Amino acid sequence: VSFVKFSPNSKYILAATLDNTLRLWNYASGKCLKTYTGHRNEKYCCFADFSRGTRVISGSEDGRIHVWNMQTKAVEQVLEGHTDIVLGVACHPNE
Q: N or C end of the chain: smaller count of CB under 10 Å?
């Protein structure tokens, strides 16, 4: 595990691991609820965040930012434009 973040309601934990996955865990039960894939994360600590309770956002070692639908796990958007690894992402807590 290279990065963890509590959801805004503190019920879930988003964990990044160095196997190219993000996992959403239920804090109370300890069960893995969702697994998000599509980004590259094998070497560095790439941050992830929640966006308005409906999306998961993550940096990637391929220089992109990936946006998933939190419920369906579908990649909704891949943002390009960086020339190096995207280590950090952050979302406004209310917008």
A: C
Q: What's the pTM value of the predicted model, to 2 decimals?
A: 0.87
Per-residue pLDDT of the chain (95 residues; tens, 9 = 90+): 889 999 989 999 999 999 999 999 999 999 999 999 989 888 988 889 999 889 999 999 999 999 999 999 999 999 998 889 988 888 877 76
Residues 42 and 61: beta-carbon distance below 8 Å: yes
Task: Using alpha carbons, select from 20, 24, 4 the residue that is nearest to residue 62.
Answer: 20
